[in-house]
Design goal:
single chain, alpha/beta, eight-stranded mixed β-sheet, globular
């Protein structure tokens, strides 16, 4: 089984040297991702496409390969094909006929052919010959060139014939690392998840900076979002997750800053701290999820005042998006359920927040901060490789004495915490065993209502979410929870 990866049109429009560089990087990215699925994955670059082969003895990997290819930036679409040899146009038809005979019954159809190489026939001649033969020798209603019930896609590459089995839409954008690195200020909500995704899609290696206003529980939730974005869309490259303790900043703002200026000043401190971290790691821009007018700190005047605190470029990909559009996008990329489960940690709430901050007044208020406040909190920042989040959760859970089990006792109940769509795609069935279905974003509120005399085993497919949720429940004082990893 083979996949043909089509490059995003914007890559095809580049100069020859840039196009070649982007294609090489995409080939490497695909290889990096698929090698984690199977070491025998074969990736071969051609001028206008990339060929991916599934190991012949592992047909069960086809769907996994397709899923991963659909999440790699830089790909327009992917076609899954069966490969054949041929020696004539009639031979092509003879191989197409048995595959599509039953599918064409009662349907209109057309044949589309893409051809590369030197042949004694043209693409349209193959379309007419194969289409005519199918029309005469099947129970098809007839040929219909516009909006047919079924389109038969064939690709002829020199001496090879590829019959298209299915088409998988890609992310588009540019291959990862074709653009410079960015540092995304992530809170775990709808906005920051979507803004981070936008730059992953655009080919920028996206690191994460989290300002912790809500303690360990808040950090766990944000790590879930960042890990999901990296694992799903940016796994081809290493990125950093930086956690900055911000309770001290919030305390000083509440004690020393004029009430109406709190929100703007909080954002300015975040930008200053993020700038120091970006400079330290050679990152050229910050990314935020701010949208014009969404909250008081995001008026045009206030954003202007916020930007004056740093010379570093601040990028706001959602600036003109409506909230519902952002939520809809979060649903598509898989961060909506995470965002629902994370409470709003505002840190500071002004009674009458200014919507037209005056720079001079803001700067005067900031003089009230302790000396070296920002430098001190940045010095306390914790930096980890994002792939180590899973390992870190293992260690934290071990410290909290949470168990990981591979089998279920008759007195225990398994809770499948996956989102509904994921659970329905691959249902967890344990013969003779009760399996409750509570999505992770509802677990924190519903777990308290469960029978406390029963031990519950949390399950998710990759094991990361179940570990994170187990740690969260243990921190809440529950002792009747384990992690189920069959």
């Amino acid at each position: 089984m083979k996949f043909i990866v089509k490059l995003y049109p914007e890559i095809m429009m580049k100069s020859k040297s840039v196009r070649s560089r982007f294609t090489k990087m995409l080939e490497t990215n695909i290889r990096n991702v698929l090698k984690k699925v199977d070491e025998d994955a074969k990736v071969q670059r051609q001028w206008d496409r990339i060929m991916v082969r599934v190991p012949k003895d592992k047909p069960e990997l086809v769907d996994t390969f397709a899923e991963r290819l659909g999440c790699i930036p830089g790909i327009a679409h992917v076609v899954q094909v069966n490969e054949y040899s041929f020696d004539s146009v009639d031979h092509i038809y003879q191989q197409v006929l048995p595959l599509y005979r039953d599918q064409l019954a009662g349907k209109t159809f057309c044949v589309r052919v893409k051809r590369s190489g030197t042949h004694d026939f043209k693409s349209i001649e193959v379309e007419r010959y194969v289409g005519g033969g199918l029309n005469q020798n099947t129970d098809a209603v007839g040929v219909k060139l516009k909006n047919p019930d079924l389109t038969i896609n064939l690709e002829i590459d020199h001496e090879k014939l590829y019959m298209v089995v299915r088409r998988i839409e890609g992310l588009g954008g540019f291959p990862m690392a074709t653009q410079e690195d960015v540092l995304s200020l992530i809170s775990g909500g709808f906005d920051s998840g979507v803004s981070s995704f936008q730059f992953i899609k655009k080919g920028a290696r996206t690191h994460y900076c989290f300002f912790n206003l809500g303690g360990a529980q808040h950090e766990i939730g944000v790590k879930q979002v960042a890990y999901h974005l990296w694992k799903t869309y940016g796994e081809s490259h290493k990125v950093k997750f930086i956690s900055v303790p911000f309770e001290g900043v919030v305390e000083e703002i509440l004690e020393r800053i004029d009430n109406g200026q709190m929100g703007v000043i909080l954002k300015r401190v975040m930008m200053r701290a993020a700038t120091l971290l970006a400079d330290k790691y050679g990152i050229q821009a910050l990314v935020t999820g701010e949208s014009l007018g969404q909250v008081s700190s995001q008026t045009l005047t206030n954003l202007n005042v916020i930007d004056r605190c740093t010379d570093l470029l601040i990028l706001r990909p959602l600036i003109a998006m409506d909230k519902q559009d952002i939520i809809n996008q979060s649903r598509i990329i898989g961060t909506e359920d995470f965002a629902k489960s994370i409470p709003e940690y505002c840190g500071v709430i002004s009674q009458k927040p200014t919507v037209k901050a005056v720079l001079a007044k803001i700067e005067a208020e900031e003089l009230k901060f302790s000396e070296n406040l920002i430098e001190n909190i940045v010095a306390q920042a914790k930096v980890i490789d994002i792939k180590d989040i899973a390992i870190e959760m293992d260690n934290q859970i071990a410290t909290a004495e949470a168990e990981t089990v591979v089998a279920v006792d008759s007195q225990e109940v398994v809770i499948d915490i996956r989102a509904q769509e994921e659970e329905e795609k691959k249902p967890l069935i344990i013969p003779g065993q009760e399996v409750k279905k509570i999505p992770f974003f509802k677990l924190s509120t519903q777990f308290a209502d469960l029978d406390k005399s029963i031990t519950y085993l949390l399950y998710c497919e990759r094991g990361v979410m179940s570990k994170l949720q187990a740690l969260y429940l243990i921190e809440q004082g529950y002792t009747n929870v384990k992690v189920y990893r069959p």
